[in-house]
Amino acid sequence: MQYSWLSFLTQIAVLLLLLGVLHKPLGLYLHAALEGRKDSRVERVLFRLSGVSSTREQGWLGYTRSVLAFSIVSVLVIYLLLRLQGLYTPGGPGAVDPWTSMNTAISFVTNTNWQVYVPETTLGFGAQMALLAVQNFLSAAVGICVAVALMRGLTRFGTSHLGNFWADLVRITLRVLLPLAVVGALVLVVAGVVQNFWSGTVTNPFTGASQTLPGGPVASQEAIKLLGTNGGGYFNANSAHPFENPNSFTSLFEVFLILLIPSALPYVFGRMAGDARQGYTVLGVMGGLWALTTTAMAWALAAFPGAGEGLEQRFGPAASGVFASATTLTSTGAVNAAHDSLPPLAGGLAMVNMMLGEVAPGGVGSGLYGMLVIAVVTVFLAGLMVGRTPEYLGKKVQARHMTLAALYLLVVPVLVLVLSGIAVLVPGILSQAPAQGPHQFSEVLYAFTSGANNNGSAFGGITSSGPALSTMLGIAMWLGRFVGIVLVLALAGAFVTQPRVPASAGTLPTHGGLFAVMLSTVAVLLTALNYLPALALGPLAEGTLS
Q1: Interhelix angle 344-355/317-329, nearest 10 degrees
Q2: Rg (CA), the chain
């Protein structure tokens, strides 16, 4: 199928226009929702029932304990209810097997949404709505909570308080995610996405042939799946299924939903820092990386005009490329094409997008806090070059800050490379990736890159439902999410106690073009240093041989 550059440029122009128009209004709304001190009536009831005082702030240790406790309990509840599905879905799918239940519980709590099962045959309406859709809201809210805590750590002075996790969680869910998801779901329903409680067999009266048509509350789950950069589809084909993504409008609208909140959060950062230029600089770096890799994806697809199998046949390959870039540059993982069918260099670019740390603009919350950690490292390196103590937003960047930042940046690469290395050395695990040569390694590398980065997309040739690979991916998802969160909150706690350091003539401005170039360079170099040898064994080798 011939690649259409006109289609690509049109989609990019529409996305930039819509996101640009909504950037400041949505940013103002997000800031007001996150920093507002007056609780709504519903919030007061929830806080009273749960015994939470929304005005009692926590230090970084208290905030961290709350995040971990909430997430561990969520995993246990989802696992248990999936195992007991037969009790509350009579006549429907029975209990989910232990390995699938474990992997799914960890997957949805970590905002990964890796799916080792066929949703329409494994889960009933109750499990989809009460477990997975709810967790799509909550896991996204946790990511935003952590980003807000880091922003408070960088912009508050001489205190130990980072806010209250429980209050932040409720406010983000009720004030931000729920209303946006309602609007998104209504648009999707009007555009043709399925929303019902019916599923059954239809028989053609003329031929006598029958067909089972799956249904369900798809649009309501689709909206938060995309807004929360979750990615788990209601159907096995995900956003390639016509009931989830029926036309070219919904395909582009779904990309818009993916990028909406992550692209607005930098404005909140600028607002909290008291300097809008800080937010615009971070947004500029995110946007520049997004434009670069999305254009490179378009080039990689256009260079292989005959590679149409597995790509979006209804809307053209340009739609596949734009969607694939958006979903791997964020932590979404939703797909409207088979990533295993991407040309080798395009598949490699999808991996690189995740290896960047999904910071362009990244997942809801996780993209911003990942970029801010890279900004801390950039400031430190700049300080080394000019021989003075580095400063960021009026705070000194010291050894303990760099230790935490360096550990954060190493967690995911270590998980990806170590677990991929173990997988290719164990024949029983490697056999679950049936491809041959470099592509077999690419399937394994993509799986652990996706899992550790909490993305959830996959090269579909790999079978991850077995006990060994399910467990290894569960480890990658859990550690990739929560070790990073602990380090980010520790970094916020280390910064928030500092007094303000007055800017001097030697202070590096952390806004504007110079810092944006430095920040982009550091992000790219860190990715290359960590992953280039592995990429050379997989997609680069495959691309040179094809």
Answers
A1: 20
A2: 23
